[in-house]
Amino acid sequence: xxxxxxxxxxxxxxxxxxxHAHGRTSEHTLRAACLHTAIVAxxxxxxxxxxxxxxxxxxxxxxxxxxxxxxxxFMRSLFSxxxxxxxxxxxxxxxxxxxQLKVLGMQxxxxxxxATQGVNTHRGAIFALGMLCAAVGYCHAHARPLSADSxxxxxxxxxxxxxxxxxMPSAMSLPSNGTRVARLYAVGGARExxxxxxxAVFEIGLPQILKSLRRDATPAMAQIDxxxxxMAYMTDTNTYHRAGADGAQLVKLSAQAFIAQGGxxxxxxxxxxxxxxxxxxxxxxxxxxxxxxxxASWFVFQISASGxxxxxxx
Length: 314
Ligand SMILES: CC(C)(COP(=O)(O)OP(=O)(O)OC[C@H]1O[C@@H](n2cnc3c(N)ncnc32)[C@H](O[C@H]2O[C@H](COP(=O)(O)OP(=O)(O)OP(=O)(O)O)[C@@H](O)[C@H]2O)[C@@H]1O)[C@@H](O)C(=O)NCCC(=O)NCCS
Ligand SMILES: Nc1ncnc2[nH]cnc12
Fold this sequence. Notes:
Blueprint: E1 2-6, H1 7-16, H2 24-50, H3 71-80, H4 82-93, H5 98-115, H6 123-141, H7 148-166, H8 177-185, H9 190-195, H10 199-214, H11 219-233, H12 237-260, H13 269-282, H14 288-304, E2 309-313
Antiparallel strand pairs: 1-2
Keywords: ATP-binding, Glycosyltransferase, Nucleotide-binding, Transferase
Catalytic activity: 3'-dephospho-CoA + ATP = 2'-(5''-triphospho-alpha-D-ribosyl)-3'-dephospho-CoA + adenine
Protein name: triphosphoribosyl-dephospho-CoA synthase
């Protein structure tokens, strides 16, 4: 029989009988919570890809600045990741060391690359959402609150030191577009984001989602606002990789102008966002890192929202 349990019930159950000392029922409950966490991660990535207008990015309307990606490719990539996020939540619940989480992440990258025939659709998301799933899994197992603060604190307490080490790739690390532009332009990127506990998510994307929803924006409008604020204030190595420091600056200034006009609260916001999309496509610009951080922000919002529910197989 299927049962729907509010997350608060799951947490209360663990408070009464901690999962690390669990019997059969709490083991089932924890498994259901990890599955729920993974479903929210997949749904967040799905919501991001379906969103439009997103300047320079792939959406159901067009492929933005990408010749080698479309929505169908992102769907195949997403399908290849369905087990990964469950494994990361479960590994987090078991206090797994970063070295083992990294192995899971690298296996997921390989599966993604097989599914996309070598195109990098979700590399940033595998890292960021994977680590966040691990932190949420830990919170479930240890009856910690599922608030944004608690998720971030857990991430840093459990894996903060290792994430700092990971932000300093060794001579043995494979070169990447991100490390190349980080060196070339002396900027941070996905690795620095991780080392700092994803400030783009917790200090930029999530606060904007909450702010937009408070003024009665729809979920899609709140996500558009968050994407633009992320484009305006984070360092996205993909924009540097695509168009250098000038291109990255153009992304920031365009996004700041959209926000200054009121974001999606402005009557003509769709026309402004559409013009920004055409400009980015003409310059080959794609804020893919901001897109990943948007999905991660939406994930944290969904997990921390009080109405979240899990499905448990009785
Ligand atoms: C920590 C890693 C993510 C690796 O990071 P690194 O910077 O070394 O490597 P990249 O390969 O460049 O991947 C970074 C991805 O993260 C996204 N991103 C960029 N800036 C930020 C940021 N400030 N914060 C968070 N995330 C950010 C970005 O994702 C988007 O870019 C994708 C496309 O990029 P690219 O492949 O460069 O391709 P194109 O633009 O199409 O250009 P060409 O192909 O034509 O050249 C797009 O889809 C977005 O998703 C970057 O992808 C992590 O992977 C890692 O640790 N790697 C080492 C191995 C490992 O340990 N793995 C397991 C970790 S759990
Ligand atoms: N919608 C999108 N388009 C291009 N790159 C992305 N990376 C993550 N989401 C993306």
